[in-house]
Batch of 3 targets.
Target 1
Amino acid sequence: MSFIQNFTAGAKIVFARLQTKLFWQNFVKVAVPFFIIVTLISLLMNSWREIFAGDFAAVAQVNFNDGKWEDFFGFKLFFSAFYALYVTNKKMK
């Protein structure tokens, strides 16, 4: 088989999986915890001193105020969705 035929066959399999309710249930089971973990790790890396000092106003200023929340959560949402799609597709047979 050629590369194009293999790619087309694989794409049909993935597309068929995307149309099932079980796929999306498993997707959510992977994406939500991964998003939470990535967010917590990121907050700890960016503002661990402020968090442990209890200065949540400083944490908000560094990470969320003035539209920074869009960048903060945007990348994490995209990365979590991409990771969950990959893992869910790989684990479902």
Note: The chain has a mean pLDDT of 90.
Target 2
Amino acid sequence: MNAVKATIPVLTAATLLLSSATGTYAAAPDQVVDRETVYTLLNSDGTVKKSIVVDWLYFKGNGNVTVTDYGQLQHIRNISGLEKPVVQNGQIIWDAEVKGERSIYYSGETSQPLPVDVSINYYLNGKKVDAPSLAGKNGTVKIEITLKNRLKQKKNISYSGYKGARHSVEKELYTPILSLVSLNISTEHFTDMKLGDAMTVMSGKTMSATWMVVPNPEETITLEMKGTDIELEPITITLIPKLPPVSEVPVKEQLEKLTDGIQQISSALDQLGDGANQLAAGNRQVKNGLNQLSEGLGQLNQVNQAHEGLVKQSLETNRQLLALAQNLAAEKPQDANLQALVQGLKGQQQMLKMLAEGGNLQGKPFPGLDKMEEGLKGSKAGADKLAAAAGQLEKGSLQLKTGIEKLSGGTAEMKNGLIAGLNKLYEGEAILHQSKTAAEQYDTFLGKPKGAKGEVRFILKTDPIEPVKVKDSAGQKPDTGSEEENISFFEKVKKWLSDLFLNP
């Protein structure tokens, strides 16, 4: 028992010592910012020669803190202090003493593929050549720089369209990578430059040309110039996960109002078309009624003509009977019956004549059957004209309805086209928003501490194209090391990066 009791203090002390040595009691920082700059040396054709990540860890806190960064790096170097990280399983663990705020700059090599593949082709007088063979030559040089975005992803994008209708579409999107391609061109070696959309600045005898593209998924920059004793400075490519500023479409509100107006016109035309259809139906009924009236008047006229023929026949018969009765009465003037018969036949003759030819009856005009025939014929002709007019109205109403239907169809097509265009506009805005979000989320190349705010930039540089120079060893100054001791930290970083890019 005493042996066990004696062992406990020893184990406790050892545990505390080990805990202290491994940093168990180191606190997490209050805030961490991780800014990565990836410097990549490219061969002249754009293939990667070497990539070095320079990571700036900035954190706030007090006391001994531990920051765990992530990334597969080789040859890690602290370029801002003496601390050395613990590297294990893709973790880069830093223990540092912090008084308010602290920065650690460190570098390391990586073989991780860049987000953009670069391919560069060179032509001399129309013939494809490798870059080194251009040095010292004369002729027309053409350079094609192709950037291909590798950050492809499928996204299901939901958005509200016209009148709030919900839409969903699956799109293949690329994380926006703003790419600045720069080349300094000596006017002593090159003339007749065709630089496309490059932004140019003259500095002495050097023209600085910069192209800005966003490969989605691919962009090619082409430049052409006439060279003498050709030398080319390195091509520098800066990659920034960012979407260039895009102004809002100012016509969206006007298009929405126009679509609403077309919708109202379409509804009004539908109502007008229904009215034209009803008008055509009404005119059809009037026409049918007038046709029936015309048919009835025709039949009535036929009856009238039959009556007129009968009356004329009766009038002739009565005239013959009257003549016979008058002859008999003249032979027998004393016969009262014959006298009465003559008077009766005379009265009947007058009535039949009035029926046939018309006249006055009890002081009022009485139309004859011949006048009635004229009236019936006129009425039938009028009914036929009215029926024809009603038919024309029906035809016109149907033509109006057809025209309205065509106009309504064109208006509906216009409305549908505007709605489809607006929906495409809404879809484009949703895609733009998704792309912007993807660019914001691409804030690290290798990984960052948990909860850290990240930022990543890429600087790519090709080999220069120049005649091979033989170094004069006799002219080199001996490296005493004293100069390096006297320069500041930031000058050390600058010198280190300069050595990295100028003397790879």
Note: The chain has a mean pLDDT of 81.
Target 3
Amino acid sequence: MPEPYQFQIFRCKGFCPVCVGIDTSQTVKILKEIYPDLDSEKAIMGSLVFCIHHKQGCKWSDELRKLKAHLNTCKHDAAACPNKCGSQIPRIMMTDHLQYTCTQRRAKCEFCNSEFSGQGLEEHAGTCSQEPIYCEAKCGVRVLRGRMSMHKNKDCAKRLRRCAHCQREFSADTLNLHGASCPRAPIPCPQRCDVAPIARADMEAHLRDECKALAVACTFKEAGCRFKGPRHLLESHLESNAAAHLSLMVALAGRQGQQIQMLKNAVAKLSTNYTGTLLWKITDWSAKMAEAKSKDGLELVSPPFFTSQYGYKLQASMFLNGNGPGEGTHVSVYIKVLPGEYDALLKWPFSHSITFTLFEQGVPNGQGGVAESFVPDPSWENFQRPSLEPDQLGFGFPRFISHELLNRRPFVKEDTVFLRVKVDPSKIVAV
């Protein structure tokens, strides 16, 4: 045993009140049976001991014979609850027990002042109708529990309310904001016509098609008519000004035609080839060949192209069934010089070499084909400065490729033929 529990005459055998917590008189009786010697008894009862509650904080220590009397007043020793709830409570905790935890205590609810036993108060807590609690809808308001149902139905800013016009539901604090934009809310006509209030969503159609007070422009406004007045006067205006409107429309059509032509010219200029090389893709070859064989002198012409931005303007042409010596047996190709915007600044006659190439398609070892070139003779009329006459003569090869060779080798694929016309860039005259 620890040193404080060792006596002078004998060591503790497990019978002291410190060890077993039994009544001191019972301890003395047991000791008398074991140690009938009065001197020994006196020595034992005079031994120094600590309170059995020293670990709970009691600082008492004295002779063993005084332990019982101390325990009757020790604040750490357990005593029966005076309310007879059946609990053994340390004296130091008795006040709190009687006030807060005793099931037989009498207490009043702080909200409704009703008196309950301890257990009844615990059951009452959380159900008291007079207790203020925050609204369950999280509107931020504290309301007595008994009035919560009324608050949620009548006063809560977060309760759901139905719009009287569109029948959609909104929280009460946003309903007014919705009303300012509700598409079905009736509003008066801004032109103050005699029609009853109209749904906001229908107002635009009313102003456009029905409102008699709205000032409308003439339907020929884009043509230049400046009439603007009440809708009911528009019909009479149209009847009385039919001739004037017709004149305005004719003038408008003329202006639009000029604009269309300007746009066409701009588009054509953007799509013009200024590289000096034309790659001409001819589709529907079979149909065009059949047409060429059935019509004499049928000529296909390419889009115009230029040797440079300010250079010569050229155009290629093709006779699928041949022309001149090649008629009926060959494909003929020609080049002609067209009148250009900058001809006055160029050197004449045209003297750059030109090469025609008809490509084979799908050749495994690279691009193959048939090519013919020539350098214009300065004396040839075809390459002098062109006049504005549309029938300017062309120059080329009437027997460029035979029909037999054209069909034997892969010049035609997917009913398409590719012909390249290239001007030698090394001989282009720069200005």
Note: The CA atoms of residues 41 and 230 lie 130 Å apart.
